UniProtKB/TrEMBL annotation:
Residues 1-22 form the signal peptide. Pfam families: CADH_Y-type_LIR, Cadherin. It comes from Pagothenia borchgrevinki. This is Cadherin-12. Residues 752-764 have a biased composition (Low complexity). The chain crosses the membrane at residues 610-630. SMART domains: CA (SM00112). It comes from the Eukaryota.
Length: 794
């Protein structure tokens, strides 16, 4: 009989009180009921609670099978009892036969997914649908089988141990887990073993701790090991599962090797003109260790003379010894250097080697090569001082260089013009003497840096240069002045003794003792009644009011000359005149510096006066604009009436003459003609005359028609003349000559006769007629452009 069948049978019999025993209890219960009917007191039968034991089912069993049975004491086999199952897995993993109470599995179960199920059972009477037993709870446990492979945790495993470590040194610990039930059999009992890595490493079978099993493992021989560890369940018995993992073990370095030079002698060559700090060569002492254990320090023996000419340093990256030149070389003085170099480990470990094994020595041989060297200056840098008032030609100093070669070639000196922008100095090419070439000014340039070049006169033209610093010393050649453009003001109502403005001064000069300025007022015959200067003896001074009640009505500005004197030798001074404005200050004592009020203050006028000026200016602008508009309007009217004006041209028989009526001796003076008589011509820039008014045109036409009927006393003629004069005065195109007049008609009836030459063009002049009235009747005409002495009369 198989194990599941036995378990099921045991389970069934453990759950059911027993087949025969169940019937017996039922019979005894029935007999007890019959006895109770004959007695006077009926004894009621008490219900017993269900007693369930745990049920078991093996995992991963795909065959549905009966795992147990539920049965009530009231079940007589008549199928009157209905069994109901609920809870975890009911209807999904388990089902119950509602007639017999047998519990069956529906699918295979996985203990690692769910280890047990909690279910509830209930027995119900089919007829009354009432429970015959109270609801009872029971547990179905899933039994484990070995169906899981053990798994390593925290992979990958990497560890390191120092080289040359002892046997049994712990390397690492590996850990594996098995999902099977550790409480059921040996399914989850694990054991560890080494598949790869022996004989260097071993593992504890139960704990998984890896330890060393080989002595004196050398990192320089092998730096890394791969250890493969296997784990098995079922205590390693056949039929179990297994898995493996790899542990990477690295050996860390310890200082178990000393430095060693590969050669006993190293030879180098260096030219004699090599600069200080030049790398002459490199040496390397090999050390099998790494990191801090391979660090070493190189040194030269101190007892040799050559050790002062060269130095050796350790390259922190490559651990090489760098041989550097510490002093200039001279082939003519010494041509070969021999010295010993030593390499010593910085960190020693006497557990592995003796102290002397952590150092090594070698010999260095350095040969100096001859080269043609440029001149060498006696000093690396020159620094001189010269006063700024030094005259042109003053000697500032001299430089000197020599040729160190055996030939000793002659040398010429020059100033590098590419670096000398000021051209303030010259140098003697033969002896190197530097003189002043032009006037100096410390305030412009206080330091001059020039480069002097020394060059051999041979074909090689070897040269060298040196920097010369020339400091220009200060002399007192600048007058002091006020530090800024002060605009002091005094508020109305300022009391006597109040500070108005704090003054300070500046001076481009730079005296050794520092600046010290003295402030004073210009000496006058009378003491300034308004202000005074108070020198604070700290290069500042204050303007102080001498009196009170300053008002703008009395005066808006005051001029105060201030004398500033320096402490140089000789002392220099300057006079600065300050304008002190009287201001209507704001409540906080501030004088406005912007806006209309500030502008009025700066102009020295009141605010009301300034506003009046502004209003007048605006009025003038408006009038100018109106005049331009009127003139443009008149110009348009003239262009419109241009055609009509052509109808008013004079007849061809009428010629125009220029007449001059002069009055030198008063009324009744002789009348003279303008000599010579020139016919009027149109001005090149003058446009055609255009008549503006209809009444003027009518007057002209009437005058032409009735000219033989009117005389100079006629109102029409007089009005005609006045209209022509007004037109001439207002016409902008008339030339400004007071003696020129143009008339379209001269008229008839003058006692003196006609002045026109209209009828004298072809006939001779008649004899003069005696004048009956020696006093001519004259009419004064308005002169052009406000004429004074000369009047035009008719």
């Amino acid at each position: 009989m198989s194990m599941p069948s036995v378990l099921a049978m045991v389970t069934v019999f453990s759950m059911i009180p027993g087949g025969v025993m169940s019937d017996t209890r039922g019979t005894q219960g029935l007999e007890a009921q019959q006895i109770a009917q004959g007695s006077t007191h009926l004894h009621r039968r008490l219900k017993r609670g269900w007693i369930w034991k745990q049920l078991f089912v093996p995992e991963e069993d795909p065959t549905p099978r009966v795992i147990g049975q539920l049965k009530s004491d009231y079940d007589r086999g008549e199928f009157s009892i209905k069994y109901i199952l609920s809870g975890d897995g009911a209807g999904d993993a388990f089902e119950i036969d509602e007639y017999s109470g047998e519990i069956r599995t529906l699918k295979k179960l996985d203990r690692e997914e769910k280890a047990f199920y909690v279910l509830q059972a209930q027995a119900i009477n089919r007829r009354s649908n009432e429970p015959v037993e109270p609801q009872s709870e029971f547990i179905i446990t899933v039994q484990d089988i070995n169906d899981n492979v053990p798994q390593f945790q925290n992979e990958p495993y990497v560890s390191s141990i120092p080289e040359m470590c002892l046997i049994g040194t712990t390397v690492a610990q590996v850990t594996a887990t098995d999902a099977d039930d550790p409480m059921f059999g040996n399914n989850a009992k694990l054991i560890y073993s080494v598949l790869q890595g022996e004989p260097y490493f071993s593992v504890e079978p139960k704990t998984g701790i890896i330890v060393t099993s080989w002595p004196n493992m050398d990192r320089e021989a092998r730096e890394q090991y791969l250890v493969v560890v296997q784990v098995k369940d079922m205590l390693g018995l056949s039929g179990g599962y297994s898995s493996s993992t790899t542990v990477t073990v690295s050996l860390t370095d310890v200082n178990d090797n000393g430095p060693t030079f590969q050669h006993h002698l190293y030879t180098f060559a260096v030219p004699e003109n090599a600069a200080e700090g030049t790398t002459v060569g490199r040496v390397m002492a090999y050390d099998g260790d790494s990191g801090i254990n391979a660090k070493m320090t190189y040194s030269l023996e101190d007892d040799l003379e050559e050790s002062s000419t060269f130095i050796i340093k350790t390259d922190p990256v490559t651990q090489e010894g760098l041989i550097l030149l510490a002093k200039p070389l001279d082939y003519e003085t010494k041509r070969r250097f021999v010295m010993a170099a030593e390499a010593v480990n910085d960190h020693v470990d006497t557990r592995f080697l003796d102290l002397e094994e952590f150092r090594d020595r070698t010999t260095l041989k350095i040969i100096v090569e001859d080269v043609d060297e440029p001149p060498v200056f006696l000093s690396e840098v020159y620094e001189w001082k010269v006063p700024e008032n030094a005259a042109v030609g003053t000697v500032v100093g001299s430089v000197s260089a020599r040729d160190t070669d055996t030939v000793n070639n002659p040398i010429r000196y020059s100033i590098d013009k590419r670096r000398d922008n000021t051209k303030a100095f010259k140098i003697d090419p033969n002896n190197g003497t530097i003189i002043v070439a032009k006037a100096l000014d410390r305030e412009t340039t206080n330091w001059h840096n020039i480069t002097v070049e020394a060059k051999e006169t041979t074909q090689s033209h070897l040269s060298s240069s040196v920097v010369v610093f020339i400091k220009v010393l200060d002399i007192n050649d600048n007058v002091p002045r006020l530090a800024r453009d002060y605009q002091p003001y005094i508020c109305e109502g300022t009391q006597a003794g109040e500070l108005i403005q704090l003054l300070s001064a500046v001076d481009p000069d730079d005296p050794v003792e520092g600046h010290h300025f003295y402030f004073s007022m210009v000496p006058e015959k009378h003491i300034n009644p308004n202000f005074t200067i108070r020198d604070n003896q700290d290069n500042t001074a204050g303007i102080v009011a001498r009196r009170s009640s300053f008002t703008r009505k009395d005066r808006t500005q005051y001029l105060l000359p201030v004398v500033v004197t320096d402490s140089g030798s000789p002392a220099l001074s300057s006079t600065n005149t300050l304008t002190i404005s009287v201001c209507s200050c704001q409540p906080a004592g501030h004088c406005p510096t912007g806006g209309v009020e500030a502008l009025a203050l700066s102009m020295g006028v009141s605010l009301q006066t300034l506003l009046g000026i502004v209003v007048c200016f605006i009025t003038l602008i408006v009038l100018s604009i109106l005049m331009l508009v009127v003139r443009r309007h008149r110009r348009k009217q003239q262009e419109k009436l241009e055609v009509e004006g052509k109808e008013l041209e004079l007849p061809e028989t009428v010629s125009q003459k220029v007449l001059y009526y002069g009055e030198t001796g008063g009324v009744g003076a002789d009348l003279n003609f303008c000599q010579p008589a020139v016919p009027l011509r149109r001005h090149p820039r003058r446009r055609e005359r255009r008549l503006r008014r209809e009444d003027v045109r009518a007057s002209i036409r009437m005058s032409l028609r009735e000219s033989h009927l009117i005389g100079p006393d006629d109102d029409v003629f007089r009005q005609f003349i006045l209209d022509r004069l007004t037109e001439a005065d207002l016409d902008p195109y008339v030339p400004p000559f007071d003696c020129l007049r143009t008339y379209a008609y001269e008229g008839l009836g003058s006692p003196t006769g006609s002045l026109s030459s209209l009828d004298s063009s072809t006939t001779e002049l008649e004899p003069e007629q005696p004048i009956s009235n020696p006093r001519t009747y004259t009419v004064r005409l308005t002169p052009w452009y406000w004429g004074g002495e000369e009047d035009t009369i008719f």
